[in-house]
Amino acid sequence: MILKKLGFVLSAGILLIFWAGSVHAVQGQWVGFMSLFPKPGIVLSQLDKQKLSEHIQQASGNFSNDFTPEKGAVETIQFHKTVSYTLNGQPVSRKPIGMIRVESLNRQTIEKIIREVSGELNTYFEIETQFGVTGQLNYTDTATLQRLKDQAPTRGTGRDQPNAVVLPLSKTAEWWGLPQEKREQYFFKHPEVFSPQQLGHNAIGFKYINKVFRKLYHSRFMGGDQDFITYFEFADADAETFDQLLGGLRDVALNPEWKFVIEKPLFQGRRVQSPEGMF
After folding, report:
1. Domain assignment present for 78
2. Contact 231, 165 (CB under 8 A)
3. Any idea what the CATH number is for the domain that residue 235 is in?
4. I need a surface site. Which of 185, 210, 230, 239 has the fewest CB within 10 A?
5. How many angstroms separate the Cα of 49 from the Cα of each of 44, 112, 116, 238, 271?
6. Adjacent-strand bridge partners of 125
7. H or E element, residue 244
8. Does 160 have pLDDT greater than 50?
9. What own/partner pairs with CB < 8 Å and gap ≥ 24 does 252-259 have?
10. What is the distance between the alpha carbons of residues 33 and 99, in angstroms, rounded to a whole number?
């Protein structure tokens, strides 16, 4: 193997794809994703790269870097160098060279650093910004919640888990038109309702829960065209596990819930220690 106007509604649609991070995350933790699309005809010199890197590092000096994470830190900045950019498994011709991810409990802090960082970057890049916020778990029960807490993986450093994936998603109008109890059925095993092959969203996810760090951000009604931003990190050795997880969720025979999903471009990158690594 991404909302410019902020608002907030906690309405979950696809939660247990990305349960592990949400189980341990602080509710109300905001995120900003900045995708850097090169402007036509722009070629960065080594001096440009160094200047931009220094500018970003200066603007984000108070944020923890994910290569040396501080226990309990809630204000972090992370840099991703693009590996691939796809839509429904097919390459997208216009792709970013990298992505910056910023987290804070204060959304104004996120907005401020994005403004500061964008000042220099705007000369070279078209910047697409997306916002999201963590929220409460939905479509779960007591037993499932306990299992999530027991089996959710510990987040690794950028060296331990260098792969990062960002997948924005929306649900169809048909999905939002279903009653809550009907939507919840799709997350549990109900072959008598769906088909003998059906496992349900949760059961598929639990097959891979120990290997992939996941986090879900709500972004519906925030000015963008997705309902959620889903985030993953995993080690090189677990790349195949991630592919199996995503493939299982996309299989509508196993997971009929996915027929209501509208995928947006999927970003896959490598976590790098400094901004210059993105360029």
Report:
1. yes
2. yes
3. 3.30.70.3420
4. 210
5. 6, 22, 17, 32, 17
6. 38
7. helix 239-250
8. yes
9. 253/195, 253/197, 253/198, 254/197, 254/198, 254/199, 254/204, 255/186, 255/198, 255/199, 255/200, 255/201, 255/204, 256/186, 256/194, 256/195, 256/198, 257/14, 257/186, 257/187, 257/200, 257/201
10. 7
Boundaries of domain holding 219:
16-271
**276 domain residue, yes or no:** no
The model's pLDDT over 31-84, given as tens digits with 9 standing for 90+, comes to 999 999 999 999 999 999 999 999 999 999 889 888 876 655 788 999 999 999
Fill in the DSSP letter of residue 26: P
In this structure, the chain runs to a length of: 279
**252 in a structural domain:** yes
β-pairing, 64-65 vs 76-87, is parallel
Per residue in 193-213, pLDDT tens?
999 999 999 899 989 988 999
The whole-number pLDDT of residue 109 equals 94
pLDDT averaged over every residue in the chain: 87
